[in-house]
Design brief:
By secondary structure, this protein is mostly helical. Helices cover 79% and strands 0% of the residues.
């Protein structure tokens, strides 16, 4: 119940919903199979959830203590999917861009943390 009282949680849920609604492929191209469009919808949904979780951790200032390996794996897996279906959905391009920004931020944070550890020794 404590989670439902946190404003960061509700900001993340609002981001999840707004982001998914914004990148949903409303117009179906007749040259693309319906199955492929549904895969794009599922990829967009998974990316929306992943980005909302990352946003929640950033807002709670817990992203630094999170397991980077899990997020790296999830980001790479969804990036591969979006890379395959990018020509079918513009939302995939947006998700790839956001993924690149998150990966760069994670790398910079990791390098700074390693530098601080090395300076302490």
């Amino acid at each position: 119940m404590k989670l439902l009282k946190k404003s960061q949680f509700w900001y993340s849920i609002a981001f999840l919903i707004l982001f998914f609604v914004a990148i949903y492929p409303y117009r179906h191209d007749m040259y693309i199979a319906v199955f492929h469009t549904m895969i794009c919808v599922m990829l967009n949904g998974a990316s929306s959830v992943l980005f909302a979780v990352i946003l929640y951790l950033i807002l709670c200032k817990k992203f630094m203590t999170a397991d980077y390996g899990t997020f790296l794996w999830l980001l790479f897996m969804q990036a591969i999917g979006h890379g395959i279906f990018a020509f079918m959905n513009w939302g995939s391009w947006l998700c790839l861009g956001i993924t690149a920004v998150i990966l760069v931020c994670m790398a910079v944070t990791w390098i700074k943390a390693r530098k601080n550890i090395d300076d302490m020794e």
